[in-house]
């Protein structure tokens, strides 16, 4: 059954209506011991204080327990509230890597006002969030892709990066493991042909000008330290990789992406870096002054920068920046290059902090020559680790003036990444998506979902049995064999949060899978 784009929008609107306003069993009526006056006062206070830092979250976005035991106790210190009644709230005010003025020196609210905010979210939130609603189930097909994996591999892989390197002839595959800190190169037969040790877990590589610049995150787990760095990887005459110690940019705050680009058009390569951080972080560019000297410029001094693209969208000859921020003030922002290192900032899309923004791409889905936005949300590791019906894959259409409107949504619990490509050469963009926080006990197939474009921005969801044997943190799409056909690579990170239940031990799985189109089903 084909579902039109218009119907998809209607279904999503109805879902959101149920989520926010329904009086079904999922919603809770105000508590008898909470007055309407307190609830109303709490709503006004939330609008004043909560949305001063991020988009105001509706109570219906989370269940009551997540608000009371997770989100609000962690938000209190941001308002200078470290102790409330008999409870001490968690904070990082003694973390030496957090500025002393990060938290207010005095509470911004009285105890009664803070109680009103608690009452508002307690009384207005549902006991349980509604389940996902899909118009089509995910169909598991053995004949969908030809699946391959390395013939020999170590147990307990924790792949934090997987990439097709098309700068080598023939093409090769690069994989990085967070604990061994190795960068491993495979040939197209999946034989290891080279490896080196990085300074820390390597999570991104820039390949411009046939050089490799690695982004080493430093410490993977949430922290505010500046332990990350950028480094060059060079090849010797025999093609073996080596770390170039003459170049490095140090003291980066949990960097997750780098882009080598000349932002100020002076002929020298600068570096744009998403320094995700934790409670602090920023989007920065490092201006190349020559002789391996770089000057740091802060574009946006908030944590959560996770994915960026450099693109001259207004055709003025200056590179502009599109970037996704997660971690609190979530959204997609456009930095327009005004020249001389100056940028204007515009908000393209903004999301509530419970969304857990995880990835986005600029793709032209309607073939009008303008970039649309493919977006995923599903980071579910923080203060509200419950399945959320709004996690999944979204498409936002560009109206020609860089205003974006949602035209598609496919729910996937804990969705972490989605990449668009025409896998079956029919002229339409399909979507490959992974989840790191899927419902592995009831819906393990949503760990990997292939959304086949059946025309008119309608997508039919599929998965493959082999994808249920891994915990997919990272993914790439590329032409591995140099034949013009796209393959999908899935990177297995076998460790998982303790509360994430599953039937399969991912430690027995491969470091990565390769999915190659094979079936007439997707022609």
Task: Note the main sheet.
Answer: 5 strands, mixed
Q: Between the first and last Cα atoms, what is the distance in angstroms?
A: 18 Å
Strand content: 35-45%
Low-pLDDT parts are 1-27
Major sheet strand order: 3-28-27-26-25
Given the helix and strand composition, which structural class is it?
A: mainly beta
Work out the helix count. Answer: 4
- The percent range for helix content is 10-25%
Which radius of gyration do the C-alpha atoms yield? 23 Å
Brief rundown of the structure:
The chain has 523 residues and is mainly beta. It has 4 helices and 31 strands. It has helices at 5-21, 36-49, 64-75, 111-124, and strands at 83-84, 87-88, 139-140, 145-148, 159-165, 172-177, 182-186, 192-197, 202-206, 212-216, 228-235, 241-252, 255-261, 270-275, 282-290, 293-300, 305-311, 320-325, 330-339, 342-351, 357-363, 372-377, 392-398, 404-411, 415-421, 430-435, 448-455, 458-463, 472-478, 487-492, 512-517.
Describe the structure.
This protein is mainly β and 523 residues long. The chain is 11% helix and 38% strand. The protein contains 4 helices and 31 strands. The strands form 8 sheets. It has a 5-stranded mixed sheet with strand order 3-28-27-26-25, with no helix packed on it. Strand 13 and strand 14 (270-275) form a beta hairpin. It is globular and about 70 Å long. The protein starts with a helix and ends in a 6-residue tail after the last strand.
Main attributes of the structure:
single chain; 523 residues; mainly beta; 5-stranded mixed beta sheet; 4-stranded antiparallel beta sheet; 4 helices; 31 strands; 11% helix; globular; disordered N terminus
């Amino acid at each position: 059954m084909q579902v039109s784009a218009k119907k998809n929008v209607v279904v999503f609107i109805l879902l959101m209506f149920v989520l926010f306003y329904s009086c079904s069993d999922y919603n809770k009526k105000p508590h008898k011991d909470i007055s309407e006056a307190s609830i109303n006062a709490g709503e006004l206070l939330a609008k004043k204080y909560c949305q001063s830092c991020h988009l105001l979250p509706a109570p219906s976005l989370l269940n009551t327990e997540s608000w009371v035991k997770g989100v609000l106790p962690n938000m209190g210190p941001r308002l200078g509230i470290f102790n409330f009644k008999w409870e001490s709230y968690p904070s990082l005010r003694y973390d030496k890597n957090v500025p002393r003025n990060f938290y207010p020196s005095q509470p911004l609210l009285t105890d009664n006002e803070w109680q009103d905010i608690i009452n508002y979210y307690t009384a207005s939130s549902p006991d349980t969030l509604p389940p996902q609603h899909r118009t089509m189930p995910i169909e598991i097909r053995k004949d969908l892709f030809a699946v391959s994996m390395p013939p020999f591999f170590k147990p307990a892989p924790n792949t934090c990066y997987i990439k097709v390197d098309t700068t080598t002839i023939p093409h090769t595959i690069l994989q990085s493991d967070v604990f061994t800190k190795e960068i491993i190169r495979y040939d197209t037969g999946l034989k290891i042909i080279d490896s080196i040790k990085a300074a820390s877990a390597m999570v991104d590589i820039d390949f411009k000008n046939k050089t490799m610049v690695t982004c080493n995150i430093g410490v993977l787990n949430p922290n505010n330290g500046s332990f990350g760095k950028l480094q060059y990887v060079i090849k010797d005459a025999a093609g073996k990789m080596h770390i170039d110690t003459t170049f490095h940019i140090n003291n980066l705050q949990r960097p997750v992406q780098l882009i080598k680009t000349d932002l100020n058009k002076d002929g020298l390569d600068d570096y744009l870096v998403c320094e995700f951080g934790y409670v602090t972080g920023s989007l920065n560019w490092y201006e190349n002054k020559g002789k391996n000297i770089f000057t740091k410029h802060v574009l946006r001094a908030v944590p959560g920068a996770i994915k960026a693209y450099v693109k001259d969208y207004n055709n003025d000859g200056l590179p502009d920046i599109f970037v996704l921020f997660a971690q609190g003030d979530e959204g997609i922002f456009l930095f327009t290059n005004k020249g001389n290192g100056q940028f204007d900032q515009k908000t393209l899309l903004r999301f509530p902090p419970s969304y857990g923004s995880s990835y986005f791409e600029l793709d032209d889905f309607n073939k009008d020559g303008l970039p649309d936005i493919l977006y995923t949300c599903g980071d579910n590791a923080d203060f509200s680790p419950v399945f959320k019906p709004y996690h999944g894959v979204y498409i936002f259409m560009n109206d020609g003036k860089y205003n974006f409107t949602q035209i598609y949504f496919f729910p996937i619990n804990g969705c972490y990444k989605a990449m668009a490509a025409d896998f079956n050469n029919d002229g339409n963009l399909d979507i490959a998506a992974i989840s790191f926080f899927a419902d592995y006990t009831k819906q393990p197939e949503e760990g990997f979902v292939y959304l086949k474009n059946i025309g008119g921005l309608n997508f039919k969801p599929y998965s493959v049995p082999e994808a249920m044997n891994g915990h997919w943190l990272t993914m790439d799409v590329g032409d591995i064999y140099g034949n013009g056909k796209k393959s999908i690579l899935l990177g297995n990170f076998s460790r998982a949060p303790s509360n994430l239940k599953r039937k399969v031990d991912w430690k027995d799985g491969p470091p990565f899978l390769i999915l190659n189109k094979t079936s007439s089903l997707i022609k």
